[in-house]
Amino acid sequence: MSRIVSSEVVRIYKGVHTWTGVIAGLALFIAFYAGAITVFEGPLSRWTAEGEPPQSIPIDRAERLIERVLAERPDAQAEFRLHLTGPERDRVYLAWQEGRKAATQWTAILDAEGAPVVAERPTKGAADLVDHVHRTAALPGGLEFGTTVMGLVSALYVIALVSGLIVWLPSAGKDLLALRLGRGVKRKWLDAHNLVGIASLPFHLAIALTAVVFGLHDSIYAGLDRIVYQGQMRPLMQASNPFAVAKPDARPAAMLPPSELIERVRTLEPGLRPLKLQYRRAGTRGASLVVWGEDRRHLVRLMGFTVMSPVSGEILDTQYLPGHQGLWSRIVSVFFALHFGTFGGEPVRWGYFVLGLAGTFLFYSGNLLWIESRRRSLARARDGSGEHIAQRRDTRIMAALTVGVGLGCIGGLSLAIALGKLLHGQVTHPGPWLWLGYYALFLGSVIWALRLGAARAAAPLLLVSAMATLCIPLASLLIAQVPLSQLFVRSGDAVVAVDAVALCAALGLLWMAWLARRRARKGATDSVWSLSEPSPLQPNPTAIHQHRESIHGQ
Amino acid sequence: MAGMQRDWIGKTSAGLVLGLGLAFALAGLAAWCGEGPGAPNKTQFVMWLVAPIWLGVQSLVYLFRSGARAWIWLGTANLLAFSGLVLCRHLAG
Predict the structure, then answer these.
(1) Closest-CA residue in chain A for B29?
(2) Would you call A224 and B55 a contact, using CB atoms and an 8 Å cutoff?
(3) C-alpha A184, offset from chain centre
(4) Where are any strands of DSSP class E within chain B?
(5) DSSP assignment, residue B17?
(6) Contact (CB, 8 A) for A6 and A156
(7) Which stretches are transmembrane (chain B) (predicted)?
(8) Pairing between strand A79-85 and A288-294?
C-alpha cells in the first residue's frame, strides 16, 4: 500500500482531512447524536405519550365514520387518513389537518349513538424536535435552510471520509487492532479514531452520501432539468408520480368499505401490513386512496404504499409497493432504507443506534487529535517562562467548542425529551417550550465553555447533561402516579427501554464527569485540559509577553 | 512522483467546476442510455447518481500532481462525457 500512496499524497490528504473535519465535525456531532435517537422515534413518542394513538373504534364501523365526518367537516374532504391501530390492526380512527403548514391536527371516532367525536390532536413536540435537530443541527433559519447547509456539511464529510481512508492506507493492517495505550495520548486517540472510522466506514459512506442527496436534491434536480432534460423534467416526473394517477372528477360516487379495500391490497400483496389509508377527494369519482403499510422482507423507505381507486377498488400504482416496484424505484428505495435503517427489524435499529453514537465519538476524537497535534508541550518548549506553558488560543477555542457544543446538544436534547413528557396533555402545542429548553441548555453550555475554557467547563457540563438525562426516567416516575410496583406492568416494553437507556446514559455521563475532573486536576499541565489554562476569550499569553518586552525595550 | 504540488485553489476549483460538470454529464448519459429518461421513476435514480460522482472526483482530485493537470484531465473528461450526452440525446430523440 505504501507504494501506491506516497508520503507526499499522505501529506496533502492530511491537510484535506484536517480542514474538512474541523469545519464539519461539530455539526456532524449534533446530527449523529440526534440521529441515533431518531432511530427509535416510535418508542420515544410512545414514551412521551405523544405517539399514543387516540381512542379508536372497530373497523366495521369505519365506513359510517367516514360518512359522518365528511358530512359534518367539509375541511376533511380534500384529504384525510384512516389509521389502523391495535395489535391486530382492526381498530380505526380518522385524522386530518387544517392547512398545509403549521397545521392543526384533528382526529375523529364515533360515539355509541354513531355521532362523530372530534378532538384536536396534540403535536409531537419531542419527537419532532429531535428530528429537526438531526436534519438541521438546530441551525436557525428554518428546515429548508438548515437541511441545505447540512447537505453541504455532508459533502465535506464524504471528502473527510475518503481523505481519512487515504491517510490511513499506508499503515493499513499494521495499526488497526493495536490500541497503543501506553505510547502517548495522541497515539491512543489516533488508534481509537482509526479503529472506529475504518470499522464503520461502509455505514458512514452510506449515511454521508444519502445525507448529501437529502440536503441538496432540489438544487441537483434543477441542474439536471437544465443540463440533461432540456427543461422537460417536470412532465417526465409527473408521468411517474403515483399521486397524480387518479385524475380529479368531482361527480359524486359511492366508495367501497375500508375493510374490502384492504382485502384487495392483501390479495395483491399478502406480505404488506396496512397501517393507514390516505383518502383524497373522498366521495367523488376522482377519489384516490393510498394504502400505506410495512413489509419487513424488503428494503423500503419509511413505509411502502400502493395507490388505488376507493370507488372501483382498482389498483392504480405499485411503484412504491415492496415486491412490486420497477427497477429504478427499487434501487432508490434501497438508498432511503440504508439511511433510515428501515430493514431487518430491531437488530438493525440497535446497530444503527450504536453506529450513530460511535459516529459522535469519531468527530469528538477527530477534534481532540486536531488539538493534540497543536499542543505546546512543556518538555519541548522550555523558554524560561516558568512552570506553565499556555496553549495556543485556537486550540483553547476548539476544545471549548468541542465540549460546549457536544454536551450542550446532549443535555439540551435530554431536557427537551423530558419536557415533552411532562408537558404532554398540559399544553396542546408544547413545541416552543421544548425549543426554549433545548436552546437554553445548548447556548448556555457553549457560552459557559467559551468563558471558562474546556478544562473548567467539562466536568460541570458533564454533570449538567447527566442531570438533564436523568430527568427522562424521573419524568416517568413523576407522571406515573401509580405505585412503583405497577409502573413496569402498565407501561409497554418500549417505554421501559427509553427509561433504561436514559439511565445508562446518565450514569455514563456521571462517570465521564468524574474522569474529566480528575484529568483537570491531576493531568498534565501543558494541555488545554488543565485547570491552569487561561480562558479562550483571553489572547495568547505569548503575545502579552512580547508586548511587555516591547514596552520594556523602549 | 516527485514535485507534487498542493495547489489547493487550482485542485479544489477543478473538483467544484469540472467534478460537478462530469457528474451531471454522466448522470445525463445514464438517463438517456438504455430505456431512455421516461422509464418510471428513472429521474430519481439519475438524481442519486450526481452526488457520488461529484464527491468521488472532489475527493480524489488532490491526487493530480498540479491544479493545471487536474483542469486538463477533467476538462477532457467533461468534453467526452458531454459529447456523449449530446450524441445519446440526438440518437434517442
Answers:
(1) A228
(2) no
(3) 35
(4) none
(5) I
(6) no
(7) 46-64, 71-92
(8) unpaired
Q: Which residues pair with A118 in a beta bridge?
A: A108
Joined together, the cell numbers standing for residue A204 give 458512514
- Cβ neighbours of A332 in B, within 8 Å: 41, 44-45, 48
Per-residue pLDDT of A244-284, as tens digits, reads 888 888 899 999 999 999 999 999 988 888 999 999 999 89
pTM of the model: 0.89
**In angstroms, rounded to a whole number, what is the distance separating the alpha carbons of residues A365 and A475?**
32
Per the document, the length of chain B is 93
Residues A189-196, mean pLDDT to the nearest whole number = 91
A-chain residues within 8 Å CB-CB of B24? 223-224, 227-228
Which residue in chain B is spatially nearest to A19 when comparing CA positions?
B8
- Its ipTM equals 0.95
Contacts with B1 from chain A: Cβ below 8 Å: 6, 8-9
Shortest distance between the Cα of A246 and any Cα of chain B, in A, equals 16
Q: How many CA atoms lie within 13 A of A533 on its CB side?
A: 36
In chain B, where are the structural domains located?
9-92
Query: CA A297, CA A345: separation in Å to the nearest integer?
Result: 9
Instruction: List phi, psi (to 5°) of A503.
Output: -65, -45
Using alpha carbons only, what angle is made at residue A134 by residues B52 and A507, rounded to the nearest 5 degrees? 125
What is the amino acid identity at position A46?
A: R
- Read off the pLDDT of residues A285-341 as tens digits, 9 standing for 90 and up: 999 999 999 887 777 777 889 999 999 999 998 888 888 888 888 899 899 999 999
